[in-house]
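Here is one chain, start to finish.
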Amino acid sequence: MKKSQYIRISKTIIQKLSSNGCWGKGSMYENNLKNGIKETGKDIDLVIKALEKQQIICSKAHKFGKKLFLNKDKRDKIGEITKEKPRKRNSLLLILLAEFS
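Its structure:
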């Protein structure tokens, strides 16, 4: 697996868990997490295992399968992974607002 593919998958996984409020108490089944990702299941499993080793993602066994959630103690690391570049459109909007005020 290429490094860029690993980064893209890990970012997608973390964003999906974060947007669904999976921080500690909230959690998501592994199968539901995989549904929206285009890559193969083997690649996703590899990335999930790597994120678990880094303790960014935690898992717990449940009746219907494994549930995943984000580690609250690693919020800084998670923030670094999901950082996005600022959009040019937003900066243009701020400039326009500053001119009219």
